[in-house]
Design brief:
Layout (H helix, E strand, L loop, with lengths): L1 E3 L13 H16 L3 H8 L3 E10 L5 E12 L5 E7 L5 H17 L5 E7 L8 H14 L9 E5 L5 H15 L23 H16 L8 E5 L3 H12 L3 E7 L2 E4 L6 H11 L9 E3 L1 H5 L5 E4 L18 E3 L8 H9 L3 E3 L1 H4 L2 H15 L5 H26 L3 H20 L4
Parallel strand pairs: 1-3, 4-5, 4-6, 7-8, 7-11, 11-12, 12-13
Antiparallel strand pairs: 2-3, 3-5, 8-9, 9-10
Helix pairs in contact: 1-3, 1-14, 3-14, 4-5, 6-7, 6-12, 6-13, 12-13, 13-14
The protein binds nicotinamide-adenine-dinucleotide (NAD).
């Protein structure tokens, strides 16, 4: 029997979808830059979209069908670059938004990449490792002629990890006839991964938070932090914030959250998550709901889970002075306006979580030259790249009297448009 999966997350209002948010952000940047409608449409429209059916034979012999997508939003500055997401709510609209944000992100941190994103509407927690491997290999084989180290390079995102990338790389390599490590980033060290990639997004978040706080002359070790999402990004961010002296007072995952105003014992909490699969039930802290976490009286709030959590309903409750967006698209357009009106400084996703793609770039460079750098070299290069991107964005925001988000978008969009113009239009 063939069963089609359906999404389990409630759909946001039409003007609060990730794609609506991404398009509004682009329109604001285009207006600031004074571009004409033709250029606006080129920047708004994905270069290529691929939809694939992904049938899976389950361990029990039944078959289930998933929908897979890959969107290459822009490749003017180099190959498409972007994550692969496994989540039941994945659809073409969400992937389009995520791919667009990748284009601007690569521009902001000045990488020779365009933007892409992929996803499958599967809940990875409901499937065995063998089933996930088969899904990944089928999806990859469907995309064989559209991905590659010089065309489109995947990386982990929500619901995928280094092991997923090893399967993508192996499937691609076996079909090509030789090993091609640079077709993915975020892969295990044993097959050409980079030191520091697993923690890069989180390290980058902490770097830009420190830079934003410095402008207010506040050291990182004087602030309290709440983090929504305790996965690859939120989990490492919590640890790195704590290592640098910040007090991490609350974290959550999709099942709920925990708080301790004195600062969470992250080592014990991590052991609890490894044992149970969630922060919920941790006996060293009090429970806190996901929406309640957004409204805690902390200095820094880091949404590091899903899109669209800071909305016209939740943004008015935010008491943090800084929102540092670890997730992609956590703030809707309405939420953004409310935060700005309330004096909250938002360090936008396309800047704040760019550390991952920066070290992905380092991984790609290393794989291409088959020469590997030390963890310290990676850490230093990442810190420099994030500091310089933050300084560019902050300087433009001050010069033009615009938000950090608008300034970041203007930089990313301008660099992309410059590449379009210099290359010219074919034919
Ligand atoms: P992950 O799958 O490792 O972790 C996601 C976390 O979010 C989990 O703790 C999960 O329980 C939680 N979560 C899921 N739905 C939730 C909900 N509705 N409410 C609260 N928590 C929820 O994913 P990740 O790689 O950490 O990615 C998180 C975000 O960061 C995504 O927006 C992703 O696009 C973005 N991002 C990731 C990377 C990367 O390198 N992994 C880079 C840049 C941006």
């Amino acid at each position: 029997m063939l069963v089609t999966t359906t999404s389990t997350r409630t759909a946001p209002a039409a003007d609060a979808t990730p794609l609506a948010t991404a398009r509004t952000q682009l329109a604001t940047a285009v207006e600031h830059l004074g571009y004409d409608d033709g250029l606006h449409q080129m920047l708004a429209t994905p270069r290529r979209e691929i939809h694939v059916a992904v049938p899976l034979r389950r361990d029990d012999g039944t078959t289930v069908l998933f929908h897979g997508f890959r969107v290459q939003h822009n490749v003017s500055r180099g190959p498409g670059k972007g994550g692969l997401r496994y989540h039941p709510s994945v659809d073409i609209s969400e992937v389009r938004a995520l791919a667009m944000w990748m284009t601007w992100k690569c521009g902001i941190v000045d990488l020779p990449f365009g933007g892409a994103k992929g996803g499958i509407d599967i809940d990875p927690r409901s499937f065995s490792a063998d089933e996930l491997e088969r899904v990944t290999r089928r999806y990859t084989s469907e995309l064989m002629s559209n991905i590659g180290p010089d065309t489109d390079i995947m990386a982990p995102d929500m619901g995928t990890d280094d092991r997923t990338m090893a399967w993508v790389m192996d499937t691609y390599s076996v079909n090509r006839g030789y090993t091609i490590p640079a077709v993915v980033t975020g892969k295990p060290l044993a097959v050409g991964g980079s030191l520091g990639r697993g923690t890069a997004t989180s390290a980058g978040i902490v770097h830009v938070t420190a830079a934003a706080l410095k402008e207010a002359e506040i050291p990182l070790n004087a602030v309290s932090v709440a983090i929504q999402g305790f996965g690859k990004v939120g989990g490492h961010a919590a640890r790195i914030f704590a290592e640098r002296g910040a007090r991490v007072v609350a974290v959550s995952d999709q099942y709920g959250g925990v708080r301790d105003d004195a600062g969470l014992d992250l080592e014990r909490l991590t052991a609890h998550v490894e044992a149970t699969g969630s922060v919920v039930g941790f006996d060293g802290a009090d429970p806190v709901g996901n929406e309640e976490l957004l409204a805690l009286d902390v200095d820094v709030l880091v949404p590091a889970a899903v899109e669209g959590v800071l909305t016209e309903v939740t943004a008015p409750t935010v008491r943090a002075r800084w929102v540092v967006e670890g997730a992609n698209g956590p703030t809707t357009t309405a939420g953004d306006r409310i935060l700005a009106a309330n004096g909250v400084t938002v360090v936008p996703d396309v800047l704040a979580n760019a550390g991952g793609v920066v070290v992905s770039y380092f991984e790609w460079v290393q794989a291409n030259q088959t020469y590997w750098w030390s963890e310290q070299e990676i850490a230093e290069k990442l810190a420099r790249r994030m500091a310089s991107a933050y300084a560019d964005v902050s300087a433009l925001a001050r010069r033009d009297g615009i938000s950090l988000r608008d300034a970041a978008l203007v930089i990313g969009v301008r660099r992309t448009a410059e590449a379009h113009e210099i290359r010219g239009l074919y034919p």
